[in-house]
Amino acid sequence: MRTHLRATGWVGPALLLLLTGCTVGPNYHRPSAPQAPSWKENAAPPPNPPNGTWKQAEPSDGVLKGKWWETYGDPQLNSLEDKVAVSNQTLKIAMEQYFEAREQVQVARSQYYPTLAAGFSAERTRNSYNQPNTVRGISRYQYNTYSIAGQAQWEPDLWGQVRRTVEQSRASAQQSAALLANVELSVRAELASDYFETRGLDSQKELLDNTVTSYQEYLKLTQIRFHGGVATESDVALAQTQLETTRAQDIDVGVARAQYEHAIATLIGVPASVFSLPAMPLGQNIPQVPVGVPSELLERRPDIAAAERQVDAANAQIGIAISAYYPNISLTGTGGMLSGEPGTLIQGPSEMWSLGASAVELIFDAGRRHAITEQARDAYDQQVANYRQTVLTAFQDVEDNLSTLRILDQEWVTQTAAVAAARRSLNISTNRYRGGVTTYLEVLTAQTAQLTNERTQADIATRQFVASVQLIRALGGGWDTTQLPKL
After folding, report:
1. What's the domain range around 293?
2. How many domains in the chain?
3. What is the rounded average pLDDT of the residues 214-236?
4. Beta strands 285-287; 55-57: pairing state
5. CB of 158 within 8 A of CB of 112?
6. How confident is the model over 123-158, as pLDDT tens digits?
7. CB 248 within 8 A of CB 208
8. pTM, whole model, 2 decimals?
9. Among 56, 226, 436, 481, which residue has the least CB neighbours within 10 Å?
């Protein structure tokens, strides 16, 4: 009786061990990362240029939204961005990679449960009549075998190998989701940048078209003055040279514009041969981007989230490696019906079953498990360093674009004054030329100065829009870690 009580006293703990076990290896804690109390660059909007038409738009909300491109108020840009999600092939590749990683989580979870198999078999066997130990006339050397059997096999997760594998697969799937978000953000930002570059070139084209028309009038004026004897043939040649040079510049703008247009076609998933973007000069309103505080950046950048999830996956791999030090325990069971005649197959005497268990411990492996464990720890340290470097790069990215916008804002104010001065200079030189006080060389110099400054001003405006897009991209484009799948 005492022996029986002792035996049954082990049943509960044994079952509890089989069902729960333990999880070896370090539990995951997010590693520390560089932080900053505030942004170094001042993101405050600059003063409007005197008598200028450009102004920084007021933000409609203090937080970036998912469809951040709508803050620019450009219907054409909105239409192009809507096509990215359904047609961009780069985005589809990243999406399928995420789906693949997501299914791997289910593959890992399936190891929690036993495998079950069942089947029917029929077999005709003939043994050798002359085999050893055969009693002639008694032993059946030719017979049928029919069976219906099921088999179950289970390796209980005593040491947490399966749990760590699921943890690793989940973290890897979340990393793929973050990488998908990062690809989408990059593609959309690239589309917006290319779009504004195209519109900036349209502004340049409009400026050069107007300048060509103006220079044609200057050439007519010079020719009239030459025929009247108050201008030289050299003046006519200078005016003609200026006109043709500007026409060449006007044509040359088309090279870059065509390339940006082709790039946009690829980004929205259509052949460049069938896509065209109607010309439209760059708009005047640049939205103010809410930058928030630096501590939020770790939650808002998908590339940082991807790097952090990779750290989690690497940490789980350490536990998987450590579990190899413990014995593998396997439980098997077989049951069914076996008979030599079909008619007696489904009868009580045909019943058969077997239960078994095995435990295997690796005694010697020449340091293989130790090396694999150390390899997993080294990989974890590598991913921690990669995560911290990604954070540092993100801070640099934001500061770069904040400083770019700040400096371009200052440059815009100065350049606007330069354009105004160049226009006054050309008016003065034109009046002096009409009055016969100076030669056309002075007019040509003033024309060149005005065109150069106006093109610089248009280029600054384009760079402001592109820098604004890149700042939004650096801030995560309205994404945050709450959008990661729970799995």
Report:
1. 18-87+157-326+370-483
2. 1
3. 93
4. parallel
5. no
6. 988 877 776 665 555 555 678 888 999 999 999 999
7. no
8. 0.86
9. 436
